[in-house]
Each structure stands twice: as structure tokens, then as C-alpha cells.
Amino acid sequence: MGFFSFLVPVILWHGHFQALRATVMTSSKRLILSLSLAAFFDSIAYVMGEVLPDGVLCNFQAWWLTYFDWCALAWVCCITLNLYLIVVKEIRTDRLELAYHCAAWGVPFMLSCLPLFGDYYGPAGAWCWITDEHVAWRFIIWYIPLFTLIFLMMLCYLRIIYVAKQRVTTWSGTYEPSRERRKVVMAEEIKPLKWYPCVYLAVSLFPLLNRIHNAIFPSQPVFILTLLHVISAPLHGLANAFVFGLDKETWGQLTITSLQLAIQSRFCDSTRIREYQTANVHYVAQIDEEDSESCGDDTIVMVSMPSITLKDKGP
Q1: pLDDT score for 266
Q2: What CA–CA distances, in Å, run from 239 to 10, 14, 39?
Q3: Where are the beta strands (DSSP E) in the chain?
Q4: How far is CA 312 from CA 6, 153, 300, 309, in A?
Q5: Which pLDDT value is given to residue 269?
Q6: CATH 3.40.50.150 fits 2-267, yes or no
Q7: Rounded to an integer, what distance in angstroms lies between the CA atom of residue 128 and that of residue 139?
Q8: Between residues 159 and 3, which one has the greater pLDDT?
Q9: Binning pLDDT at 50, 70 and 90, where does residue 189 land?
Q10: 288 partner at 20 to 30 Å CA-CA among 35, 249, 256, 311?
């Protein structure tokens, strides 16, 4: 599962870069590209292999998981906020992308470093994370913020869907084709984006149940809960790919033909722009051999036939 979550974000990157080469990438697509980047790095920790002993490498794996789990969640929040500002508040969000990057990469870094100061990272099941001796930190650092943000995002999407439907179904003023087209495009963008919080809720449910059981019964692990935890935890990238597949426009750019054209345009593009000087042109009624020999190499002679009348015989 971790391998698929590792591979799929690479495919998503390629798909979004093809969209970037074909057209100007929209703000939402750039945010999804950043989400795919976070999911890619998050999946690396899940394919590291066997359980690591307590030490520097184990602490690094635990920090890596915490940081990029938070980065992926932060980008989902940014996507939701971006869509809320566009649809509900009708605010242009292009100037906010730098703030999104600062928040989505900076805040997770600070949160993931907090357990390092107290040496709370260590072996914690299938992967290194916050140890069983510091269960409260698991909920403070991850699970309570996770489900709080998911709940808030769902409220935002309910508001977004309601406002979008109201604007699509209502009509006022004169008919403007561009405005009507924006309504349709907005409705199409909302369809796939609204599933990202549901994805995080689905893949985080069994890990939460297993961690709650571990906190209550630390010496009595349940095999089925542990198994579901191990299966669902690495599925962020694969679940994002499922949502990504709902966008038919971007998915259509992953055809064999488009990939071949992209490779050819990347490595075989030899287009050159040159400037050519026009030759001198003279119009004559008749031409004989002597006159033709006297013409220079750079002169093109246009012969007018008796049946053709040239109104403008300029140089």
C-alpha cells in the first residue's frame, strides 16, 4: 500500500505538469500539485521497511511521518479555504498562494519538532512515532486537530455547495456568456475537491480507533485493528489518486498520445525563429532572354500575361 501511495503522486505530478504545459495552471491545480508533493514524501516513510529500534533513524522516521502527514492535511485545508474564498466570498486568491505555502510547510514543521524536544518519538507499532508512554501527545499533536479540521472543512464544503447551487440556479440582470461559463466551471471544480476531507476521514478512522484502544488497553492489542491501521494509514496518496481521477479534464491529459507529445516537445523541440529579407520584385509586360540575364540573383520577375491586369505595379 505504501508503494502505491509512493508511485501514484509521481503520476499526479506528471499529469499536472502536462496540464501546465498545455494551459495556464489554475490556482486549484497548483494547490493539488503541492498536495501530491506532500503525499509523495509522506509515503517514503511507509516503505522504509522493518520496525526500527529506538535511535536517530527511528526518531527521523517518526518526525518525517508527523511532518508530511501534517503537510498533506494542511494542503487539504488550504484547498478548502481557497475554494471557500472564491465561491462564498468572491475573492481572488492568486496573491494568497505564498501565504498558503508558508502555512502548509511551516506550521507542520513546528508541530513535528515539538515531540523531539521531549524525546517522545520512538517505536510505536509498525512504524516509529510517538511512543505508548506519551499517548496524550498523540492526540494533542495529531488526532484532535485532525478530526477538528475535518469537521470544519465539511462545514465549509456544505456552505460552498449551497452557495454554488444558489448561483447556478438563480438568474438576474442581463445574460453574460462569460459569467454563465464561470458558473459551470466553478461547479465542475467543486465536484472533485469536496472529496478530499472525506478521503482523510476514511484513511484516518482505523488508525484513530487503534490508538484509542492502545491508550485504554496498552497491553492488549487487537490484531484486526492493528491490521486495518497498517493497511489504511499509507493510503493517503492512493486515495488522493481516486479523487484526482474524478477530474476528467486533467485525467484526459494522461493518455499515451499526450505523454508522447509531451516527451517529444520536451526533448525534441528544435523550433527556431528567423528573419527573412524579401527579394526585389519587378513587374514587366514581357521578358526576353537578354533582360532575364541582366536581372540580379535577388530579383524576382513577375510576368503579366495579356489576360491579367495589374492595378498596382509597385516595386
Answers
A1: 57
A2: 14, 17, 10
A3: 121-123, 128-130, 280-284, 299-303
A4: 70, 71, 16, 9
A5: 53
A6: no
A7: 16
A8: 159
A9: low
A10: 311
Residue type, 155: L
Every domain of the chain and the residues it spans: 2-267, 280-315
Rounded to a whole number of angstroms, the distance between the first and last alpha carbons of the chain is 75
Q: Are 105 and 42 in contact (CB under 8 A)?
A: no
* pLDDT tens-digit series, residues 49-107: 566 787 888 899 899 989 998 998 899 899 889 888 888 888 888 888 899 999 999 99
**Grid coordinates 516503505 are at which residue?**
47
* Averaged confidence pLDDT in the chain: 73
d(CA 75, CA 69): 10
Tell which residue, 68, 82, 66, 70, has the closest CA to residue 30.
Answer: 82
User: Which burial class, exposed, middle or buried, applies to 179 when counting CB atoms under 10 A from its CB (0-12, 13-18, 19+)?
Assistant: exposed
> Please, which residues have CB within 8 angstroms of residue 222's CB and are 6 or more apart in sequence?
210, 213
More confident residue, 251 or 60: 60
The residue with greater pLDDT, 145 or 301, is: 145
- How many Cα atoms within 13 Å fall on the side-chain side of residue 308? 11
